[in-house]
Amino acid sequence: MLLDKTTMFSDAQALRATGASTNTIDLKAGGNAVPGRLVLIAHADIAFVGATQVVCALQTSDASDFSSGVVTLASATVSGTQLADTENNLFALGVPAGLKRYLRIYYTVTGTVTAGAISCFVADIADLH
After folding, report:
1. How far apart are CA 114 and CA 107, in angstroms?
2. 9, 26, 67, 102: most buried by Cβ count inside 10 Å?
3. pLDDT tens digits for 71-126?
4. Among the CATH numbers 2.40.30.70, 2.60.120.1110, 3.40.50.300, 3.90.650.10, which is that of 5-31+38-122?
5. Which residues, at least 6 apart from 102, have a Cβ–Cβ distance to it below 8 Å?
């Protein structure tokens, strides 16, 4: 699996509270850069401490600041036990149809998190680890 910085929503982003990914993806900036089926992948870079769960929602919007017309396309709920595992991917989900120009991840964090970092990105294939 090859990674491209422009397809990364979070690159070892520290998560302590609910909020949006550090980066957004502008699908129009790359022209027709979405050749086929994409996979949304997340990985815990630093084991989470104090999190009971994190919901990772793939959102899309016509506005770059996500101020209006936000649509959630897919989401994955990750348990506290999974968030402590830095060896394996937390999830790999197919990106559904219905993409607007901009994409981001919105993280909903449950628990009092004192440590933890996540990477989340799209790729054309999922690595099994």
Report:
1. 16
2. 9
3. 999 999 999 999 999 999 999 999 988 889 999 999 999 999 999 999 999 988 76
4. 2.60.120.1110
5. 24, 25, 26, 27, 60, 61, 62, 63, 64, 66
